[in-house]
Structure formats: C-alpha cells, structure tokens
Amino acid sequence: MKNNTIAKVLHLVVVLGIALTLLALAATPLVMTAYFKSGLGITRTNLDTIISAAIYICAIPYVLALFELKKVCKLIASSSAFSRNIPMSLKRISIYAASEVVLFNMATLILCYTYDMYLYALTVLPLIIISMVGASIALLSFVFSSLYEQVIEMKEDHDQTI
Predict the structure, then answer these.
(1) 66, 76, 80: which is closest to 15 by C-alpha?
(2) What is the DSSP letter of 119?
(3) What's the rounded Cα separation, in Å, for the pair 151 and 87?
(4) What is the pLDDT of residue 7?
(5) Is the per-residue pLDDT at 16 higher than 90?
(6) Does pLDDT of 1 surpass 60?
(7) What rounded mean pLDDT belongs to the chain?
(8) Residue-number span of the structural domain to which 126 is assigned
(9) How far apart are CA 24 and CA 91, in angstroms?
(10) Cβ–Cβ < 8 Å for 22, 56
(11) Which helix H or strand E contains 42, and what residues bound it?
(12) Are 59 and 25 in contact (CB under 8 A)?
C-alpha cells in the first residue's frame, strides 16, 4: 500500500514536471523577445529567435527523458515492477542525458563564437554545471539499468527454482 502511494506521488511529480516544461517551452519565444527588447534594448537582430531555437533543440532530449521517466514510473506503479522495459527506458534516459550535454555545449559555444557573447561567468558556469549534472545522470541511469537487469535475472532464476 505504501509503495503504491509513493509510486503514484512520483508519477504525479513527473507529470507535473512534463506540464511545467511544456508550458515553459511555449512561453520561451515571448519571454525572450520581451527580455531582449525591454531589458537589453536589442531590437534590430534576430538573436531572440536564434536563442529560442537553441533552447528548443536542447529541450528535445530533456522532454524525451521525462517521458521515459513517466513510463518507468507507470511500470513501477503497476504490478509489472520487474519488467524488461524498465532497463531499456533507463538506457534511453542515459543516452538522452549524454546527448543533452553535447547539444547544450555545442549550442552555447556556437552562440558565443557567432555572436561574440563572451559573458565569461555567465557562459562558463552553466557549461560546467549542466555538463556535470548531465554526465552524472547519464552514468547513474546506465548503472541503474545494468543493475536492474541483474535484479530481473536474479528474480527470474529465483522464480524458476520454486
């Protein structure tokens, strides 16, 4: 009973995360345009469109990873907690996290060199933080995937002996 409640709460948190992400992505062009026009006074360039496009490109693996996490939560909440789909989803999350690191670093470096946006601490710090977090998520989800596969094999061996 308690595990089912925890799984439902986790599923709700993931669904809320997906909804907030999609809402933030929908508002990105409006916020970027307003910020560049009023906050920075940049009106005669398409920089807001290019940065919005870079944000959308970087958001693709993130949103895909959230949907994979939703699948994992749904499987854990149901009676199929030892499904072979869970390790596959965890491997996909690992790939998405690693691709997020690569895409974010490429987009940031291209924007910095193309538009001469050398804001040192504002550029280097997010590169380091997102790279470390993304690499950690990729590594952890890959390790958990391998561990979960071993647990499933052990359970299947145990079920066959009884």
Answers:
(1) 66
(2) -
(3) 10
(4) 75
(5) yes
(6) no
(7) 85
(8) 2-161
(9) 26
(10) no
(11) none
(12) yes
